[in-house]
Amino acid sequence: MDFINSFKEWFKENQRDIMIAFLIIVVATLSFGLGYLANREFTRAPIIIEKCS
């Protein structure tokens, strides 16, 4: 019971920092996912080297 109460107090004291960290993680994940989806749509022709100089 004491652990639960101490965790609640710690969470209340650090709630702002926890939310900021959570938002940063969500934005980074969404940015990575959108970038990955955007790059998948474009199929590029492979680079072919015909002669060595």
What report would you give on this structure?
With 53 residues, the protein is mostly helical. The chain is built from two helices and no strands. It is rod-shaped and about 75 Å long. The N and C termini lie far apart (76 Å).
Profile the largest sheet.
none
Number of strands: 0
Q: Span between N and C termini?
A: 76 Å
3D shape: rod-shaped
Instruction: Tell me the Rg in angstroms.
Output: 24 Å
Query: Which stretches are low in confidence, meaning pLDDT under 50 for 5 or more residues running?
Result: none
- Alpha-beta content class: mainly alpha
Supply the number of helical segments: 2
Strand content: under 5%
Q: Which keywords apply here?
A:
53 residues; mainly alpha
Structure summary:
With 53 residues, the protein is an all-alpha fold.
List the helices and strands and how they pair.
Blueprint: H1 2-13, H2 15-41
